[in-house]
């Protein structure tokens, strides 16, 4: 057994996450599909990376002073990451979140000591949108900085510097494609730009849920949404600063139902308890693997992001009554235990 290296401090636990070959998705795609285990971060999601990158950037620019406050609008996971980073560095945290996100995220933020403000979900154009509310709060709070994860490119920069570099090293430079969904756009753009620096031929695919507008933007040049999704933290209706210049080669639109198939299979067959965004990402990775083979690539390797733990959605995604209320299929084991 190889001993894991000792970390100098808790913030060094963020990143350097494992990469795992996913057996079921690989069989379905006819090629190797890998998942980056971002649930292994201290805050149990990929957003820990953005949180640390944004906070360190604010410190470096002199905006965040000792004892200051970090304010952010988030679907939850970025807020959790910021709260943990802030605790480790002696800052306070104020989080604004839509009130339709999972109860587990809300409870976690409160448990971490963050001040939590819940607002009704609304369109981005509405001044009461959670992003705009968090910006105003930051402006009104003495000693506060606004994390601004959607348009702060420190977000995507951390994925260029860490996530992309880790994937390249873990796959020993043998990677043909990468895909994930976009929330802020930091992950898909940052990893895409980083991998393209290593090899321009790596194909970067957007995997978009229904209800988001980016699929049509990259396919047809127009921001246009169709349908809806219950997936939290992904789906975007505008080109954020983090998405500007994203090297998207192709795009897929994945339904909640298709994503749930892989959430169920990865849990029952491979022991991974994940959120719906991970299921949607895996479905997109399978689609990308098939497309690469159609284009003539032999035995391509595709990587995606396993965004967060399913334990964050016990009251929703893993609750039979909630799934029925959304007209979504119920996992068979939930039906059996009802």
From TrEMBL:
Its cofactor is pyridoxal 5'-phosphate. Transmembrane segments: none annotated. GO terms for biological process: cysteine biosynthetic process from serine. Pfam families: PALP (PF00291). GO terms for molecular function: transferase activity, transferring alkyl or aryl (other than methyl) groups. SUPFAM superfamilies: Tryptophan synthase beta subunit-like PLP-dependent enzymes (SSF53686). It comes from the Bacteria. The keyword Cytoplasm does not apply. Keywords: Amino-acid biosynthesis, Pyridoxal phosphate, Transferase, Transit peptide. Residues 12-308 form the Tryptophan synthase beta chain-like PALP domain. Pathway: Amino-acid biosynthesis. This is Cysteine synthase A. It comes from Pontixanthobacter rizhaonensis. The lineage of its organism: Bacteria, Pseudomonadati, Pseudomonadota, Alphaproteobacteria, Sphingomonadales.
